[in-house]
Specification:
It is a single chain. By secondary structure, this protein is an all-alpha fold. The chain has 14 helices and no strands. Helix 3 crosses helix 14 and helix 12 crosses helix 14.
């Protein structure tokens, strides 16, 4: 059933996805892209992956940089065991050897401590980030060593639940898109971004559907974000 113009306008005004509108946004994308309709018809609705707006969440995302989700989770759990609760203060109390024992590389230790120090020194407020525009939140986060656009994209999507982010640096999302639309391996970043434009203003939801497709293939194991 096609929505009326008023319903359509109301949907297009959505800036944040949540449990009440998520499936409607999936349907909206499926109405406009037959490949997304195929995902829903074949695999059903994706889980609505979200994370709390906490220091631990940002630590988790940093740990996920350029490694498997399972490896990152193992490191996070070791940090939890060591600190009981992952806070800026508890992280700053760990020495290099203790961080290594938690499977945290020297480089990521620097990133995580820098984040902890910024919050402790009140140079960064997670509460304030939640009230900022996407661009302003990004500007504040990328000032910190080790936090780049992929980390910010994941934070904006899963923690702040902003509806219109496409994580061009995420290999799983990009590879899922290539497979779904049978794109050439030589396709450029710019061409992929151009394809994602058609999903505005719900590129985050489109990305979640791509991850769902990627994880739902028989050769892949389902893992939580």
């Amino acid at each position: 059933m096609k929505r009326n113009t008023g319903q359509e306008d109301s949907i297009l005004e959505i800036k944040i996805f949540n449990s009440e509108n998520f499936q409607d946004l999936c349907n909206h994308l499926a109405d406009r892209d037959p490949d997304f309709k195929t995902i829903l018809d074949t695999h059903g609705y994706p889980p609505m992956w979200t994370r709390e707006n906490t220091f631990e969440t940002l630590v988790h995302i940093i740990l996920e940089q350029q490694v498997s989700l399972a490896s990152a989770l193992a490191a996070l759990n070791k940090l939890k065991e060591k600190t009981t609760k992952i806070t800026p203060e508890s992280i700053l109390n760990l020495n290099d050897e203790e961080m290594r024992a938690c499977y945290v590389s020297r480089q990521k230790s620097v990133y995580i401590r820098g984040l902890a120090q910024a919050i402790t020194d009140k140079h960064l407020s997670l509460e304030e980030l939640s009230t900022m525009t996407n661009d302003d939140a990004r500007k504040n986060l990328v000032k910190l060593k080790g936090i780049g656009n992929w980390t910010v994209d994941v934070y904006l999507m899963f923690t702040l639940q902003r509806a219109d982010i496409f994580p061009i640096g995420d290999l799983a999302a990009v590879n899922a898109l290539k497979r779904l639309k049978q794109l050439p391996t030589s396709i450029t970043k710019e061409e992929i971004l151009e394809i994602s434009e058609q999903w505005k203003p719900f590129r985050s939801v489109a990305s979640i559907m791509l991850w769902h497709y990627y994880l739902s293939q028989p050769a892949k194991k389902n893992i939580s974000f």
